[in-house]
Amino acid sequence: MNRRYVLSMGVSLVSLSLMVASSGHAWAQTQPATGEIALETVTVEGQVGSGTGPVNGYVPNRTTTGSKTDTPIEEIPQSVSVIGREEIEDRQAQKVDEALRYTAGVFAQPYGLDSDTDWFFIRGFDAGQTGVFLNNLPLYQYGFGGFYIDPFVLERIEVLKGPSAALYGGSSIGGLVNLVSKRPTTEPLRYVETGINSWGNGYAAFDFGGAVDKDKIWSYRLTGKVSGGGWETEIAEDFRGVIAPAFTFRPSAATALTVLASYQHMDLMHTGGFLPYVGTVVPASFGRISRRFYYSEPDIDLYRRDQTMVGYEFEHALNDIWTIRQNFRYAYTDSRERGPYPYGYLDPATGFPVSTPTGPNNLLYRIGFQHHTVVNTASLDNQAEAKFDTGPLSHKLLLGLDYKYYNIDHIQESGGGTPLSATNPIYGTPQGPTVPYLDQNLTMNQVGFYAQDQIRFGTGWIATLNGRYDYVTTKSTDTVGNANFDDTAGEFSGRLGLGYEFANGMTPYVALSRSFNPVIGSDFSGNAFAPEIGRQFEVGLKYKPTAFDALITVSLFDLTRQNTLTSDPVNPFFDVQLGEVRSRGFELEGQANITEGLKALAAFTAYDIEITKDTNPLLIGNRPNVVPEIMASGWLDYTVQDGPLRGLGFGAGVRYVGFSYVDNENTLEVLAATVFDAGIRYTRENFTVALNVNNLFDNEYVSSCDTQFTCNYGAGRVATLKASYKW
């Protein structure tokens, strides 16, 4: 039994002991003479109904994503999905991309269960690097200079689908994910939780909050989590922790300042991924490579990250019309990674990688790799909001000026790696030296001015008008490679939306949008790449029934992504911007609190994605690799409300992901997969014990292949047991 497994068990047991001890103390304080348990009400800053506060069950009412103002979700002329804290807890999602598994229009975890990164595609396009926002401020990522957010510190996970630069500036063409932090409470909040999964990974977490003074001018929130232990991949283990303090100063109803901060440490070994098509999707001569196969070297395997963030949200109402806001965040990450990774099988005769095993030992070809990456980034968003009428028109006008600074200083090295048997791995062979191929310092500055007018008129008309202009500068110096360029670009983005809100809860809408996303790099001649351009036409319907609490969203869209990179036909080691991809699709999503104890989710996605321009004419009309065109999911959750089984809850879900292609030539397929999840829990007074099992029937499947050398298994069956207590 390894050191970190012991640590994970210790963390869980100590936390459980503290819960029992604190519960006895709390019962002694709160139990009246009748013997009944008196429970105090806990309220959170930004109550149910707020755009950043808790979601009532599974059904959101308001959001700030898609408007940057506190807006009813049906008034936003784009498809928006909101995953609230209760849904995250019911499914025990341990990563952001895991929480997105049941969301329409999102292909979550395309590269399997990655222990250090969240991956997702929105409307067919990768959004994991340039489509991540935290509290409506960008968490821009380039190369290995990304950020990791533990979902335990989040109140909501929200998805805005389609081009969104009209509000947010340069961002993923397919859409974005906005993470919403937990915020300070004005009433006492005391919560502890501990758990362990069937891979031997345990954790302990806490969430405290409340007012500091009797007038509730000062309030705080302190959230933290520590975890460690094993993973599905053999040998691999991790240790990580996060702490996120926050406080709010509210001297009056017109003024509030909230400071949000966090520190996170990660120390882990590599898991999953980078396996050949033959031996995973289809059997090799020896069968299939084990899903638990560890491909690196335990003596040198390294992934370590230290990440810090601090920022604030300031709001002041000048009068009944004008409100001003300023939101700011600085973020820093320092990450190191080292270890070989496989790239196909070794051909002993040539020493190069091939697609099928050629020798009796089934040797995998491995490449040595390491990097050291440091990122400093800052974001500032100034806003002025005005509410007023002009004749029959009611306006909510938003004017904004924002700035994004991103600097990455990184060195990447590659070199010789020794082969490793896929069927009988023997570790410990010394690895060859690595040589730098990139030593880059890159700085991006983006300044944007934007305006939005949300107009209501007539008996139910809602118009949304957006315009934004961005000026972006990018400068890169590379001391060992050719990543030397200096570029400026100016881009206009816009959105026009129109909807009508019927008395029966139906709101049909139509929207046009234009967006951009900066592309870092240069062509063979050293010319910097121009931004990608996205154009979308979307029609949809948002329905909030009057008979029960639910939100049903239906959308049809036609999205084109231009200026995509494609191989230079003259210089094969370089790219040119002559590509175009079109994504057309239908999305259906339902979230419902059907009765007091019955909640439901349903999602269906159908796409038609094709390459419409490319330097290789044989690719035109094909589907891009990795992305499935059909996805569906459903989740049903019921908690007994009365009788001797009161507090007993059950949840069950199913996820379907259609087939995808390995290559843009569409010659190899990754099979479709269906996975079932389930959960059971019991709550008595303030105690809750829950057991969730993902991939209940242990379906062995491949999530996707980026090439025939880089395929990724989906996560196997894992059971997570947790206990929590609040007082």
From TrEMBL:
PROSITE patterns: TONB_DEPENDENT_REC_1, TONB_DEPENDENT_REC_3. It is a multi-pass membrane protein. Keywords: Cell outer membrane, Ion transport, Iron, Iron transport, Membrane, Receptor, Signal, TonB box, Transmembrane, Transmembrane beta strand, Transport. A motif (TonB box) lies at residues 41-47. Residues 1-28 form the signal peptide. Residues 61-70 have a biased composition (Polar residues). Residues 73-175 form the TonB-dependent receptor plug domain. Residues 273-696 form the TonB-dependent receptor-like beta-barrel domain. One of its GO terms (cellular component) is cell outer membrane. Residues 50-72 are annotated as: Disordered. GO terms for biological process: siderophore transport. This is Ferrichrome-iron receptor. It comes from Microvirga ossetica.
